[in-house]
Amino acid sequence: MSPSNYKAYQTSSRQSLSATEATALLLDTAYDHMQKATQAIVEGNIERRFQESEKATLILGNLESALVRVNETQSKTADALKDYYDSMVSLITRMNMKNDKASAEAISESLKTMADEFRKVSVLHEKSLHETSEPTETLKVGA
Question: How many domains does the chain have?
């Protein structure tokens, strides 16, 4: 691949989301729903609290179903994330049963923290790609 083609490829590949970036955005969306659920608790709107928290639960369930276990490292990471997603769903269920604002706030904070961590991983991954994927000069035939 020529250096100019490589540069064009890099530019176009940056326009799509990596798995870690997409996960961060989904966690942000779950966070937004939990913020709305918290506000619904304050307002005494039980139906809205339930609807918003269910949206967060659905996102977490879909994130869990998308976990990949190709090798041992991915399996360990996937297992840890599965445990996290399961615990968040369990906490959301308890929060709904108790209509507990403090629990909703704690869940929201955890989701925001996890989204931020995924963003950090994404940045580190991007940096490592740039450090290791610079095109090498091609060997000239007959040289």
Answer: 1
Which residue segment(s) compose the domain that 29 sits in? 18-129
Report how far residue 135's alpha carbon sits from residue 67's, in angstroms, rounded to the nearest whole number.
Answer: 31
One DSSP character per residue, 42-76 reads: HHT-HHHHHHHHHHHHHHHHHHHHT---SSHHHHH
Q: Which of 59, 71, 2, 63 is nearest to 34 (CA)?
A: 59
C-beta of residue 20 within 8 angstroms of C-beta of residue 121? yes
Give the pLDDT confidence of 16-25 residue by residue, as tens digits: 888 899 999 9
CA distances for 17 relative to 51, 98, 101, 133, angstroms: 28, 37, 33, 18
State pTM to two decimals: 0.78
